[in-house]
Amino acid sequence: MSHVTSCFMAIARNLRYLIVPLAFWVCYSGMLHAQETERDSLINELRRLESQKGFTENDSTYVSLLNELAWNYRFFKTDSLLLLSEKALKISRNISYKKGEGCALLRLGDYYSDKGNNNKAIEYYQAGLKIANEVGEGHLILRIMNNLAGEYAYKSDYAKALTGYLDAIDKAEELNNLEMLSILNENVANLYASQKDYTQALEFYKKVRKINTEIGDPVIMAETNSNLASLYADMGDLEYAMFYVNKSITTFEKERIMDWLAFAYETKGKVYLKQDKFQWALFWYNQSDLLHKNLDDDRSRIGLLNGMAEAYLGQGKDSISQKHALEAFEISSRIKFLEGTQKCAKTLYKINKNKKDFATALTYHELYQKLSDTLSRNENKKSLTMLKTKNEYELQKQALITENEKALAQQRQYVNAALAILLVFIVVTFLVHRGQKIQRKLNVELKTKQQKLKVREAELQDSNETKTKLFSIIGHDLRGPIGALQGLLKMFNDGEIQKSEFLEFIPKLNDDVDHIYFTLNNLLSWGYTQMNGAVTKPSVVAMDSLVTENINLLSEIAKKKSIKVISKIPENAHTWSDTNQIDIVIRNLISNALKFTPENGMVTIAASEKNDHWEISVRDTGVGMDRITVEKLFSKNSNITTYGTNNEKGTGLGLSLCKEMVEKNNGKIWVDSVLRKGSSFFFTLPKPKAEKNYSQAS
Q1: Digit-coded pLDDT (tens) for 538-572
Q2: Each residue of 110-127: b (16+ CB within 10 Å) or e?
Q3: Is 136 helix (H, G, I), strand (E, B) or coil?
Q4: What's the pTM value of the predicted model, to 2 decimals?
Q5: Cα–Cα distances in Å, from 412 out to 408, 432, 440, 588?
Q6: Cβ(280)–Cβ(296) under 8 Å?
Q7: By mean pLDDT, which of 448-462, 519-533, 654-668 is the weakest?
Q8: Which residues contact 234 (CB under 8 A, 6 or more apart)?
């Protein structure tokens, strides 16, 4: 190609980039005008009512217009949304207009949801749902149920979110509300997508597309197409992603739906980003950003900003990338949006690594790892697995019902034939009896299978509880420190940090390794007991020696915090117990006491003799616990994890292990604690079987 030809090609490309934004501005201005016209129409209607002779605000029509206008201001002017909703709520309560009150509470919930105040949003949604149920407003009930479930999803409480969506789906089917059925099934699909279970997500999208076809609304279909495009982009199926996003953009531009169009432009930018076509990605991200300037939707803006940050990072423009990533990080932190914070942390880790600011990079990497573990924690996966179990149960139940219906149909055929042929009355009677017998048999079989399914579900739940605890500990308390160690070693091996810089991290790595070693010991002991592999082998145990050994073992920790550890165990304190198991108990209790005792404190281990047992106590002068924490400390499935006075990490497993070990040795364990004064842990162990003989020999 000649130099002249190259110049013309460059000019042509520049003209293309100029023409497209001009065309976009024409379209954008029209869309903005259309949405403003709709709001202006509502404002004019309100003014018309207010100007009428004898007008009073205490009118249900006036309240309905306020609520509708408030809804139109969402994502555009949130202050107006708040003021109009509060006004509608006040008037509705004055005139006892329940439907208006329920709608106003829904709008207030939307406002606080968009501001990231999850608890406040849930409070308003629940209040609105209660009123909607009282007046039987079906569509309002479904809207609030959907938004309430969505709020739990924003809090990463996928178990409650899933339950909420399923309850709403049942209600929507009862009311035959196809629009809400589409929305609710699509939200369940998005829950699966958030856990990267794309197969299940696509199954639900099949249901959604079938419902949308029945509805026949192009806007609803376009909304689904834009979400499908985002899903396919995450899956890496970029051809499908581009196909669906282009279809949705065509509809949104035609119908002038600005908020969804902004999301569709952002999704198209994501598709180009996945292809490493950074210039085109930024082009579409900028189109979305132009729309966002007239929107008031922080949560949606996070994904856009992070996408722009990744695109600029791909172009090597790290400073611009950092600006967008930090803005997204600030919004995510402000509205407490964990998924947004996670993505921003990953981008900021890459940027700071490129800048060779390894300390900051490591901070963001640890934050990303922590949030990744939180968002994919086993409770969420268990909830979605339980849905699969429920679906399988429903399929088996439906199969039995179908079989039962076939049997009943056959019975009816026999009866009809008997009516037609009166001469064979005896035969008909026999057939009816036979049909009833089949029906009873099928009912018995149905109940039996239901009982078996319940037993299997209970077994699955028990198994999942153990796995949940294991994976929670491994993910949060082992993976983080090991990941940090691995990342630091990789940077050292790659020559990204010098030996002197590496040595500065040695004290932190030493503490992390000590924590990992202690946690693994507890984890292996607890896991062994859960698999019924631990056998208690009691013998005569000298408690003073056992306590002294553990004091020596933990002396370095006590020395670092200048804590004085005193043993007041008498020499004759002999118990009938398993040495290894009680060694774990003592080590965990002393370790906990050191953890929660500030510098220059004191830990005292003592024993008092009772009739047939010894009572051992571990007292500290630490931070203590409140009554609620004390009550939960030894309850079933308790997994209380806190940080010590010097930010020492814990797993919440130690006390569960202590309880199991003490009870295996026929003892009891309890705690007394006073906040800011200290805690005292007590446990009992039986005396040796020949204790009386020893006394007589003396």
Answers
A1: 999 999 999 999 999 889 889 989 999 999 999 99
A2: bbbbbbbbbebbbebbeb
A3: coil
A4: 0.48
A5: 6, 8, 16, 71
A6: no
A7: 519-533
A8: 193, 196, 198
- Cα separation, 157 vs 178, in Å, equals 26
Calculate mean pLDDT across residues 122-128. 91
d(CA 26, CA 500): 59
Specify the residue for token string 């010590």.
644
CA dist., res. 28 & res. 92, Å (int): 37
d(CA 187, CA 148): 12
Percent of the chain with pLDDT over 70: 79
Quote the tokens at residue 667: 């003892």
Tell me the two tokens of residue 656: 């569960």
The C-alpha atoms of residue 533 and residue 631 are separated, in whole angstroms, by 30
Element (H, E) at 566: strand 564-568
Residues with Cβ within 8 Å of 328's Cβ and at least 6 positions away in sequence, in order, are 301, 302, 305, 306, 309, 340, 343, 344
> What pLDDT, on a 0 to 100 scale, did the predictor assign at position 67?
84
In this structure, what DSSP letter does residue 603 have? Answer: E
Phi/psi of residue 584, nearest 5 degrees: -65, -40
DSSP calls for 43-84: HHHHHHHHHSTT--S--HHHHHHHHHHHHHHTBT-HHHHHHH
Pairing of the two strands 602-609 and 564-568: parallel
Dist CA 318 CA 315 (whole Å): 8
Per DSSP, the residues of 237-270 read: -HHHHHHHHHHHHHHHHHHT-HHHHHHHHHHHHH
